[in-house]
Structures are given as structure tokens and as C-alpha cells.
Predict the structure.
Amino acid sequence: MQAGSTAKILFWLAAILAPAEQGLKDHARWLLARASREGKLKVRRGNSHLPQALDLS
């Protein structure tokens, strides 16, 4: 393999890696937000429709 083609491959791998890392960070943030909402729902009344609404998301 030539040096130029190796540089291109490294460039494309870096271009793929950056959004993938951001996606993982976003996913972790969404999971934390969902856990926080679920914790708040535990203290709500039993006849609340909010837990059903969250299951749809």
C-alpha cells in the first residue's frame, strides 16, 4: 500500500470515529435522562398516565 492511500484510509477512519464517539456520548446522556425521569415517576400517583407515555418513547 502506498503512503497516500494509507493517509486516505486514516482520514476516513478519523472522519467516522468522531461522530461515532459523539453518538455514544449522546446515548449515555439519553439513558441518564430516562433513568432520571423513571425515578421521578416512582413518586407519582398510581393512576398517572405518564409512565405509559414514556414507554412509547
